[in-house]
Amino acid sequence: MRRLAACLLAVFTTLVVVAPPSQATGPVRYVALGDSYSAASGVLPPDPTAPPQCLRSLANYPHVIAAATGAQLTDVTCGGADTGDYLTGQYPGVAPQLDAVTRDAQAVTMTIGGNDSGVFINSILRCGAAGLTTLGTGSPCRDQYGSSFQDTIRTTTYPSLVRVLKAVRAKARHAEVAILGYPSILPATGGCYPLMPVAEGDVPYLRGVQATLNDAVRRAAKATGVTFVDLSRVSEGHDACQPIGVRWIEPVLVGTNPVVVHPNALGESRMAAEAIAVMRRL
Fold first, then answer.
1. Among 100, 150, 153, 162, which is most buried by a count of CB atoms within 10 Å?
2. CA separation (Å) from 129 to 55, 99, 148, 163, 238?
């Protein structure tokens, strides 16, 4: 990993992914997998080579990495992907993401798990709908759904993550593999109804759902020998309730990204910056 690291000493907005010394000839063969947080869905400019359904951006963190390091990028990130789309085609004509991971891959990154069972996106949508019914007061979402979202993450998402991370490891035995967690979507308390139409009492509840998801990603990474990039702490104060230029995630209303509650270009670059720091500590 030293060869590529030397190219990144002055680049704080990219993920350092470096090949072992035995593979230190030619550009690093880098494969990007994952969902809309990896694809930067809705961020301009779009990737003209991507399937239209995937809403992949040229400003996603894999493209930033490749541009900064000269890595040879194979990007199959796709909005809406879940762990099942690693093993089967997500759309007609779109191959399983694992098909892109070849034996000679030297680096693999991903953000995945948030769409499994629809649980994370459903928690946001349902809590938003519930918040509208109370005009942002109370905790209608927590009152209705209780621990169901977190239970599904623990019992279904976690083992699915372990399964696909093992599959990636089996196909790319000599690669550095990293999985990024999800950055903070809401502040710790209060919220910003109606920009994020979540009732005030449901803000900590949704934060708890996201924390459970990130913990499932962390545990799956540990169980499979994959590097986990925790974004929880560094993304604090950059949630969707913050102003433009501070927030990493765009809100439902008055945002700059047509794909709401997703990272903007700043968020993508900062996600990559934290990954650099993590990889350099290895």
1. 153
2. 25, 38, 17, 33, 23
Mean pLDDT of 74-91: 97
| pLDDT band, very low/low/confident/very high, at 11 (cuts 50, 70, 90) | very low
Q: Give the range among 1-15, 97-111, 177-191 with minimum mean pLDDT.
A: 1-15
Q: Is 229 helix (H, G, I), strand (E, B) or coil?
A: strand
Neighbouring-strand partners of residue 178:
109, 227
Q: Does position 211 have pLDDT exceeding 70, yes or no?
A: yes
* Catalytic (active site) residue 184: no
Contact, 9 vs 268, CB < 8 A?
no
Nearest to 169 by CA among 250, 226, 246, 242: 226
Residue 262 appears among annotated catalytic residues: yes
Q: What is the pLDDT of residues 43-70, one digit of tens each?
A: 999 999 999 999 999 999 989 878 877 8
Burial class of residue 21 (count of CB atoms within 10 Å of its CB; 0-12, 13-18, 19+): exposed
**Six-digit token string for 239:** 């949630």
* Residue among 57, 117, 123, 262 flagged as catalytic: 262
**Which residues make Cβ contacts (< 8 Å) with residue 126, sequence separation at least 6?**
141, 144, 145
Task: Kindly indicate the confidence band of residue 204, based on its pLDDT and cuts at 50, 70 and 90.
Answer: very high
Cβ distance 89 to 95 under 8 Å?
yes
